[in-house]
TIGR00266 family protein
Amino acid sequence: MDVAISAGPAFAMGTITVPPGGSVRVEAGAMAMTRGDIQIETSTRGGFFKGLRRSLGGESFFVNDFHSGSGGQVGVAATLPGDMTSLSLDARMPLLVQSGSWIASDPSVDVDSKWGGHKSFFSGEGLILLRCTGAGGLLLSSYGAIVATELAAGETLTLDTGHVVAFDEAVQYKVRKAGSWKSTLLGGEGLVTDFHGPGRVWLQTRSSNDLIEWIREVNPQRSNS
């Protein structure tokens, strides 16, 4: 994938150059602009049940494939302000991506859902993670800036669950309380995730969960009764 990222890390936009005869797959609603010879095709890409699993993972039921006969560009932008990062996915190393962070990829990359079990349930991030497999380019977005970390064998990185963007499937992870139940409920830290290397982990410098809680505090819903 030939992508140029601009206006980051606060308001990043990815401009993807589509070669003649090429295409790129984009999350529904993420297209900000097109330039040149670009046509759009909307589908579930994999059928109804795959679209449903993807939607349970926080992405749209549909995806858009942008095709070009003679070459063009597609600009993509995320819903929340933040950064983007472009990765080259290896077929031997699947990537697990948090809900909402996948924004575009080569058609050769398969984006499906993966049951996270109790680990994802207690993290508050939903029961489904997106599993990206295949070989090709992948574009991820974040709320805030993106920081990439390479863990050595046996090394541990602990993140607040709301700051996780993506990690190699080979990385082991476990969700736990930040401290005692008292500090978890009253100390504002909640639950954290321990990642055990070797492998790569990407984090975001802001948490959308914290943003939602702040909005609730400054603009509480009033009862109509």
Notes: The chain has one domain: 2-218. Residues 208-218 form the longest helix (11 residues). The domain at 2-218 is CATH 3.60.160.10 (Double-stranded beta-helix).
